[in-house]
Amino acid sequence: MSTNILGIETSCDETAAAVVRDGREVISNVIYTQIPTHTLYGGVVPEIASREHVLKINQVIKKAIEEAEMTWEDIDAIAVTYGPGLVGPLLIGVSTAKALAYAKDIPLVGVNHIEGHICANYLEDKKNGETGVPPESIEPPYMCLVASGGHSHIVRVDDYTDYTIIGRTHDDAAGEAFDKVARAIGLGYPGGPKVDKLAREGNPKAIEFPRASVGDSPYDFSFSGIKSAVLNYLNGAEMKGLEVNKADVAASFQQAVIDVLADHTVQAAVDYNMKTVALAGGVAANSLLRETMKERAEAKGLKFHCPELIYCTDNGAMIAAAGYHEYKAGRRADLYLNAIPNLKIGER
């Protein structure tokens, strides 16, 4: 008998809900993005994000149930992101999920946002024909790079609910570095997609930006140095009155970050005898990262998997997928579930 999970995601600036069957088949996926609102401020304003979630969350959940052509009686559990993320937005999702679980007498499952990103790799959208790689082609164990605005981790996935961090950033996350560099060269917010687009017009070898390594930690990252190198390059050019080719800056910066992300992840997979490498998180939507990871993984004889683009950025389907595996493992949250902004991978 199939299991239908309603997933709710409000960790940052997307209000999202989805219904997923058996942790893989996406039945509905509704996302309301606040990007146009926050673009005015050059980044996410937590108070504004919280108010937007309050205004939209009931509509988004209702639409997800309707598009799935289901009623509440068809939902086996409600999964909700309770961390990490912005505390205000998280509280909106958690409070709504608890109220619904109580009112509808449906089990509640708390989901780690980062683990949700990893579980996006299992999703298959049969309804819209976006099947991508068959979902049975990836199953634990595998090595996964999680790259987003707030996180850069290499995670060993030993089972559907068993995660171990192998590498992490010591300062800026990859997505954070993309946003800061985008702002420095005048691209605005959100930085990641804009850098990706502009970089296609530039020469990735035009400027030699550093590829940082972290002492004796072969799988860890540090992106503050490359961010500073870009700022120094721009300031130096301005002081000398030189014209800056923004496309070359974007391409060279992007190549430097992606070289490190891909090389460290693939090396970790080889060292831990994994046969598959996966991608997850918002930066996983970057076209060059997807191409580079695939190329370098296959060069080492490894399989490569990444989610459909719509499931790389924040969405309810990935939370439902992660919630399914938590639910099957017998884990339930009570009505004391609270937001944990700094929740770590693997914490329960």
Written account of the structure:
41% of the residues lie in helices and 18% in strands. It has 348 residues and is of the alpha/beta class. The strands form 2 sheets. Strands 3-2-1-4-5 form a 5-stranded mixed beta sheet, sandwiched between helices. A 5-stranded mixed beta sheet has the order 8-7-6-9-10, sandwiched between helices. Strand 1 (4-9) and strand 2 (14-21) form a beta hairpin.
The sequence of SSEs as H and E is EEEHHEHEHEEEHHHHEHEH
Structural class call reads: alpha/beta
With helices defined by DSSP (H or I, 4 residues minimum), what is the helix count? 10
Low-confidence stretches: 128-133
Globular, elongated, flat, extended or rod-shaped: what is the shape? globular
Radius of gyration: 20 Å
* Number of beta strands: 10
Strand residue percentage = 15-25%
Main sheet overview? 5 strands, mixed
Please state the average pLDDT score: 93
Instruction: Please list the strands of the largest sheet in the order they lie side by side.
Output: 3-2-1-4-5
Helical content stands at 40-55%
- Termini, distance in Å? 27 Å
Keywords:
18% strand, five-stranded mixed β-sheet, 10 helices, 348 residues, alpha/beta, single chain
Question: TL;DR?
Answer:
The chain has 348 residues and is α/β, with parallel strands linked by helices. The chain has helices at residues 35-39, 46-67, 87-104, 113-119, 174-184, 191-199, 224-240, 246-271, 287-299, 316-328, and strands spanning 4-9, 14-21, 25-33, 77-83, 108-112, 142-147, 152-159, 162-168, 276-280, 303-305. The protein is 41% helix and 18% strand.
